[in-house]
Amino acid sequence: MARIKDVAAHAGVSVATVSRVLNDNPSVTEETRNRVYAAMTALNYRPNAVARSLRTEATRTLGLIIGDILNPFFTELARAVEDEARLAGYTVIIGNADERADEQDHYVRTLLERRVDGLLICPTAEVTSLIEEVARAGRPLVFLDRTLPGIEVPSVRVESAAAIGELIGHLKALGHRRIAFISGPATLSTGRERTEAFRAAMAAHGLAVPPEYLEAGDFREGSGRAGAARLLDLPEPPEVIFTGDNLMTLGALGEIRARGLRIPRDVALASFDDVPWFVHVDPAITAIAQPTAELGRAAVRMILNRVEGRPAESAALPAQLVVRTSCGETPYGGGPAAARGAGAGDPGQGDERSRS
Amino acid sequence: MARIKDVAAHAGVSVATVSRVLNDNPSVTEETRNRVYAAMTALNYRPNAVARSLRTEATRTLGLIIGDILNPFFTELARAVEDEARLAGYTVIIGNADERADEQDHYVRTLLERRVDGLLICPTAEVTSLIEEVARAGRPLVFLDRTLPGIEVPSVRVESAAAIGELIGHLKALGHRRIAFISGPATLSTGRERTEAFRAAMAAHGLAVPPEYLEAGDFREGSGRAGAARLLDLPEPPEVIFTGDNLMTLGALGEIRARGLRIPRDVALASFDDVPWFVHVDPAITAIAQPTAELGRAAVRMILNRVEGRPAESAALPAQLVVRTSCGETPYGGGPAAARGAGAGDPGQGDERSRS
DNA sequence: TTGTAAGCGTTATCAC
DNA sequence: GTGATAACGCTTACAA
């Protein structure tokens, strides 16, 4: 592999000059510049970013640690982060924590050793001593989607309460009263927030939440399935199951289908977190969409501010209710008090939110 | 940030000794080793992987360039690659080519500059000069999922012909004769292979393929939708639409739903490439599942062989037909002669393939 | 068992 | 406008 020294020799200049050409230093004659370029192509020269980073103390690399790479929410988030970082000339290394604190710490360690310029973390439940240390050391760090109590780090998160309130109002207007929630883990800030918002919205609408209508899930398919099973086995099962994320929705859907129940006639379903295929289940699933891509982009802008020494301010982006047909919104769906004006939209399909 | 020199000073030893401790060199006394460890924790020392890589000429990093990060097939692939690489102590940098040759080349360049130890590429259509150069230079490189004609590089791919043959047999046994295919791009090896296998299987079963039953798609949702639209507009539309990948299935499904058609009564649907939510559409979609995770793991083993100087042999892993209900497999599905018996299983759900 | 010192491929300072 | 050269933080002969 050709080195800068080879290029210099081939072009009949010093390594310093080649370096200047590489870094677009204006104080190089057009003529020598061209000679150097010629030498580079002749030798198939690729600058060694490792050596450069050692010298400049910058890697132009960002580390991103996500909760679960098989969750489409995080995939979309990663894509947005990657796109925005690329625009700014940065590469992203993605670490999949698989919702485990030890895996998360493993990635924090490798990313730190690799000297990434900034760290974007969707933190798992625990406040590990490593995370504390990193935050205390003041290294460029931004929390994404989730936050950690007692740790002072700028963050970008989703403001979910308003949309959840809207959903409960929507359900109540449809005639539903018995609404159950399969929550995310209380150890995660997002889990806590959604549960709190659900409770508050129910109270605000004068609806009761018996304890057995609050199922504790863990943001994974299995818990959605198990939670739905327990709810459906109740002497008085809920009219609506509201799930706390898209994977638990997948699980709940599986359980409902396995029992041969019909949505929304036998039980209605609503989901926090929207994914593209929700439109294609029959009936299409009413969901709360998160501003996922914007979340990722905002986080990159924030971490780059930190990296480049500018201040960074935490932000919360609003989620949005997307009404479809899984809660008895249309007469065809077979909801409890369904009555619907004519010519109102395309029932089978729901909307098509654009997902860039 | 503490350097090895600081640790050495703090422990009262030379940097060489600290380095030996870092690299588990056995020729260090238990006693000094402990002193060094103590110094490391006291100083919160993190070895600088950049400096280490410069010296050792190895980064313990693999580059993976995928076709489209929003396609669940590639996500699952990436996850498997990451898991297997991690087991071997490697980090993976994922580049999303977005099915564009220039993006792909961009990532090849950055990954080369970052001196990754090996490169895993799902190549886009074009044989770019950069890819040719890399292959010619003999750098550790493995093609994943797709191959490039005329380029001698070890590869791991899916053997799809057998499963496609099986699907056509299955459809014929169900009484279908007019079967259309929405293909992937002929510029991609996977696109060509699936189309070829489809043609061969149809011929083998004595079924005709009129040219208008072969829609040219591009492995993205839009082309699936457009292709389905053209097929359904035909004077004699097909009985079955077979789509060449999961995103085109999403598109076709959207078009079918938008027209208010019922599956499989009005038109049957089968998909090459299976994703978890296919089980939850009603009816569940009959699909050909790819050994995605194994594909990723095999590719990592292969590239590590190349990296460590061992020979690597190309491999092809078989895809597998997963029969569900979108092709009229059950009378309940609303096939031509729909009539439903009591208590017969769980039609809405189809099977649940385990996806590790 | 431990230390000294050269060198990895850059960038940047200082001369010229 | 260009060149010599020290330095970045490590690893690894080679010496002691």
Automatic annotation (TrEMBL), chains A, B:
**Mind telling me which Pfam families this protein's record contains?**
LacI, Peripla_BP_3
Question: Which PROSITE patterns does the record match to this protein?
Answer: HTH_LACI_1, HTH_LACI_2
InterPro entries in the record? HTH_LacI, LacI/GalR-like_sensor, Lambda_DNA-bd_dom_sf, Peripla_BP_I
Keywords from UniProt, A to Z, are: DNA-binding, Repressor, Transcription, Transcription regulation
The domain of life for this entry's organism is Bacteria
Q: Where is the signal peptide?
A: none
Q: Which GO terms describe its molecular function?
A: DNA-binding transcription factor activity; transcription cis-regulatory region binding
Comp. bias regions, Gly residues: 331-348
Region: Disordered, residue numbers: 330-356
Report the residue ranges that make up the HTH lacI-type domain in this protein: 2-56
Q: What is the designated name of this protein?
A: LacI family transcriptional regulator
Q: What is the lineage of its organism?
A: Bacteria, Bacillati, Actinomycetota, Actinomycetes, Streptosporangiales
